[in-house]
Write a structure and sequence with these properties.
heterodimer; A: 243 residues; mainly alpha; Four Helix Bundle (Hemerythrin (Met), subunit A); 0% strand; B: 218 residues
């Protein structure tokens, strides 16, 4: 019976990643290109928002993946803390800058959309502020990885930070609701809604979301593979010095 | 554990620097804000609560990197870690000593600065209460941050990057309690939330901090 923990073996992980990567990359490119072209050029303008509504095809998937990337880091950190699989720690490390980039994309596209729609680039709205704080958490996490020399200590410390940070990020999110009224509209997508938005917008949006998911998986796999190679290279260099 | 508390307190009082500096920083911060904002009393009373909370936050942060750093450098921390006391308790005692030497004096000084910033008298008890309840959380969260960065050469800046986002909920609820008291709204619920965060931080973060210390002492 094959177990998921087999992939904790770096060699097994790399062979699997290399087998999967071409497909994931092509799928990501395909979904992103079709979804974005479809969304940008072949959907009607919203009757109230005009063509600015089209930024939804970047904003929503980026925001969605920014949060999911942190969740993935949380799971990886837990696996590292509990089962001490190095690949898991490296995957968390690899995911952080990708999540950081998605957070920036979400904040930036939100500002670009907010300027014509709300008349302001930035508003101290709970959702916006929570995202800014998530951005700070990503920064701190990446900075801590960079600052600690010993790779195992770095993995341990960042894992603890990720666990504590997750709790505080959630508390902050709900504290912010207390603190200010929101300008941001409610959730666009939810799983239990009969129909979230009109189908003309919905199909390209789902395509782009799929594209972002595949893009995230591809980037994390690439980066984890690089980290494993880097780790192996360092070990070889150290071995060479000892000999 | 009491011995550790006493030792830390004695060090803070006698070795100079640490104890008075946080207070002086708090005072300077509260003096500089009106210089930057302008002397309009109406405006000042509106931002007094937030300013005092921010000042407390930064003053607290200022002394955090000394929390474990000195003990780590001269090896005391290794001895403490191998001593037959739980490291979690040690962290809690260190955080308590930090609070007694920075948080508590800030709370006591805050009403004076509140007058300087034209905080309405009715909000004064709320300011005292929210700072008294909220600052222990700052020390506990700070102890966690200090434990994470204790082995690093340039830990100070990283420490603030790590710790300040964690301060967000405490700051929001603590300052909100005072602001609501100023405008005559219900101030009790944010105060209770502050208390909840403090209790949660005191109960859980020593474990995370001790785990981080053990990693750094490896």
């Amino acid at each position: 019976m094959a177990s998921i923990w087999e992939y904790a073996n770096p060699r097994k992980f790399i062979t699997t990643a290399e087998a999967v990567l071409p497909y994931v990359t092509v799928l990501a490119a395909l979904c992103l290109v079709t979804g974005l072209i479809w969304g940008f050029f072949f959907t009607p303008d919203d009757f109230r928002q005009g063509s600015t509504v089209k930024i939804i095809y970047l904003h929503v998937p980026a925001a969605l993946m920014a949060i999911n990337a942190w969740l993935m880091m949380l799971v990886c950190s837990l696996i590292w803390v509990i089962r001490r699989h190095h690949v898991s720690a490296l995957a968390a490390k690899a995911a952080a800058p990708v999540g950081l980039a998605f957070t920036v994309i979400a904040l930036f596209t939100g500002a670009v959309w907010g300027q014509p729609m709300w008349g302001t680039w930035w508003e101290w709205d709970p959702r916006l502020t929570a995202f800014l704080i998530l951005f700070l958490f990503y920064l701190g996490y990446v900075a801590l990885w960079e600052a600690v020399d010993n790779p195992d200590s770095a993995a341990d410390l960042t894992a603890v930070l990720c666990l504590v940070g997750s709790v505080f990020a959630v508390i902050s999110r709900y504290a912010l609701v207390f603190w200010n009224q929101g300008l941001h509209q409610g959730a666009t997508l939810s799983l239990d809604a009969e129909q979230n938005i009109a189908n003309v917008f919905w199909y390209p949006l789902v395509t782009v979301i799929g594209g972002f998911v595949f893009l995230f998986i591809a980037l994390v796999l690439y980066r984890t593979r690089t980290e494993i190679h880097l780790r192996r290279l360092k070990a070889l260099i150290a071995q060479e010095r000892m000999a | 554990m009491i011995a550790i508390l006493n030792r830390d307190l004695a060090l803070a009082f006698r070795a100079g620097g640490g104890f008075g500096l946080g207070l002086a920083f708090f005072l300077i911060f509260a003096t500089l804000v009106p210089l930057g904002i302008g002397p309009d009393t109406g405006q000042l009373s509106g931002i007094a609560a937030g300013t005092l909370w921010l000042g407390a936050l930064l003053a607290c942060l200022l002394s955090l990197d000394r929390l474990f750093q000195l003990d780590w450098e001269d090896g005391t921390l290794d001895l403490i870690a191998t001593a037959p006391v739980p490291l979690e308790g040690v962290v809690l005692m260190k955080a308590l000593a930090h609070w007694l030497t920075t948080g508590l004096p800030l709370v006591l000084l805050a009403p004076v600065l509140g007058i300087l910033l034209n905080l309405p008298g009715a909000a004064m008890p709320w300011l005292l209460a929210s700072l008294a309840i909220g600052t222990p959380a700052l020390s506990a969260i700070g102890a966690f941050g200090a434990a994470l960065t204790v082995g690093l050469k340039r830990g100070g800046l990283l420490l603030s990057l790590l710790v300040l986002p964690l301060y967000v909920p405490t700051l929001i609820f603590g300052a909100l309690a005072v602001t609501r008291a100023v405008t005559g709204q219900d101030a009790l619920s944010p105060l209770l939330y502050t208390a909840g965060i403090t209790l949660g931080a005191l109960a859980l973060l020593p474990f995370a901090a001790a785990a981080a210390l053990r990693v750094n002492l490896r």
